[in-house]
């Protein structure tokens, strides 16, 4: 079983709690909020028009709850949590890039309306960092590594 590295705990707690809280909030969304979320998502991803707004909002909420819970669960390996975070934030970056008014014209810089979505870039970066996480090697494993021995 993979142990959770101490260096991974702070970002997993911070991002996991943030995403979990967002999902719990969206789960309580009223019809008007569901329409708004669905409408914005449909601009970026037109295939979502086939899904009813309330159903889309519930799926989004449960997705956020799952990703947030994955990051918070200490028994989930960091690389797996990173995969979930990277996929989730990639979808949100697509919103940021495709929805008009989120960015300044001809730039990646966010407008005031786009600032809440611009955070998805740092979530993507942390997710990619988690994907590249390796477990620490014991001294015995390092001494058996032929590459390591050749450098000494």
Automatic annotation (TrEMBL):
Protein's name according to its UniProt entry: DoxX protein
Organism: Streptomyces atratus
Classification of source organism: Bacteria, Bacillati, Actinomycetota, Actinomycetes, Kitasatosporales
